[in-house]
Structures are given as structure tokens and as C-alpha cells.
Write a structure and sequence with these properties.
It comes from Chryseobacterium limigenitum. This protein is mainly alpha-helical. The protein is built from 8 helices and no strands. The chain has one domain.
């Protein structure tokens, strides 16, 4: 099939890593454990699949929404770069810029949305379209969905084994990676925008 001509291991790994850093499911383990204690058993499969479906749907529908309001992918990618930049700062500095609302139910809300497929994740998913092929982004989403499922299933065990200090270090490391990705995303798409206007 023609779609598999664009298959690239490198792109899949990059998409996986970008989304993995934005979702930050490892850093969210204490939140997941807290929700388990508050609401009982979390349906890991349902939450993971719902989050994955939301991301894939937004990957395709999101672009049509942009066209409807007259915004190109490069401009949206730059906006996405700013969102990723802010998320990275939160992770590195341990501050809270985006205030989250208190959870009222488990599994779909707030696990699938907005904990996994939140505003930052959806913006990032669509921003990736400016640089990568759809098939590789989808596979990156699927791999993240599987990983999220495994983490949700073993959240309590992970928290006991890793400890608060290790989780904090991991959060900062992925924050720095995310910061570098946001800068790359901004510069690449800004250059493309400038080129488009010059050619125009």
C-alpha cells in the first residue's frame, strides 16, 4: 500500500518520544495512584484506548478545523511549540502554569482526557503533521497508548519501585528533551512560514 511507502522507524521513534514526553505518564504515576485510592480500580484498557482514539481523530479532524478557520499547519505548529515550551518549563522548574480542574470521575475523565490526551498532547499531535508522515505519527500514538496502558496497570508497583526522587529526575530529563523539541519545532516552521511568504 502507498501509505506504507512513508513508513520510517526514525520518524516513529521521534514521534513516540515527543508524545511520550508531552503525555508524561511516568510523571503522572502519583496522580494515577491518588485517583485509584479515591475512585477505586481504574479501567486501564478503556482509558488508554479512548486517549489513543482521541489523538488519532484529532490528527485528521484537527487539520480540517484549521482550514475552516483559515489557519495553516505551520502557524499551528508554532503555536504548538509555545505550548510544548510551557509544558517543558513546568516539568523542569516544578511549577504549575496550567491549572487543572479537580477530578470528578476516573478512567475516561480525567485519565483519558485531560491527563493523557489533554490540550498539550492534542496540539503536539497536530503540530507533528508539519514535519512527519501520518502513518508514523499514528504508530507513535499506538506505541504510546500501549505504554500508557502498561503504566496504568502497574502504577502502584512503579511508584513503590521508583520512588518520588526518581520520578522527579525523570520528569526534569524529559522536560529538557521537550524544551529542545519545542525550539526545533518553532525554528523549522518559522523558517517555512517565512519562505512561504517570500515565495508568495
Amino acid at each position: 500500500m502507498e501509505v506504507f511507502n512513508d513508513f520510517s522507524i526514525k520518524e516513529i521513534v521521534t514521534c513516540f518520544m515527543v508524545l511520550f514526553a508531552v503525555i508524561d505518564i511516568i510523571g503522572s504515576v502519583p496522580i494515577v495512584v491518588s485517583l485509584q485510592q479515591k475512585f477505586g480500580q481504574i479501567e486501564a484498557g478503556r482509558a488508554s484506548i479512548t486517549a489513543g482514539v482521541i489523538m488519532i481523530i484529532f490528527l485528521f479532524v484537527g487539520n480540517k478545523i484549521l482550514k475552516l478557520i483559515g489557519v495553516d499547519v505551520n502557524s499551528f505548529a508554532i503555536a504548538g511549540a509555545f505550548v510544548i515550551f510551557i509544558i517543558a518549563l513546568e516539568m523542569i522548574l516544578g511549577i504549575e502554569i496550567n491549572k487543572t480542574t479537580e477530578a470528578k470521575a476516573a478512567s475516561i475523565v480525567p485519565i483519558a482526557f485531560p491527563l493523557i490526551a489533554g490540550a498539550g498532547t492534542l496540539t503536539t499531535t497536530l503540530s507533528l503533521r508539519a514535519e512527519f508522515h501520518d502513518i508514523n505519527i499514528i504508530l507513535g500514538i499506538v506505541l504510546n497508548t500501549i505504554f500508557v496502558y502498561l503504566v496504568l496497570k502497574s502504577a502502584k508497583w512503579l511508584e513503590r519501585k521508583m520512588g518520588e526522587a526518581t520520578l522527579s529526575i525523570l520528569q526534569k530529563v524529559f522536560g529538557i528533551i521537550l524544551l529542545a523539541i519545542s525550539i526545533k519545532l518553532f525554528t523549522a516552521n518559522f523558517a517555512q512560514l517565512v519562505q512561504n511568504y517570500i515565495n508568495f
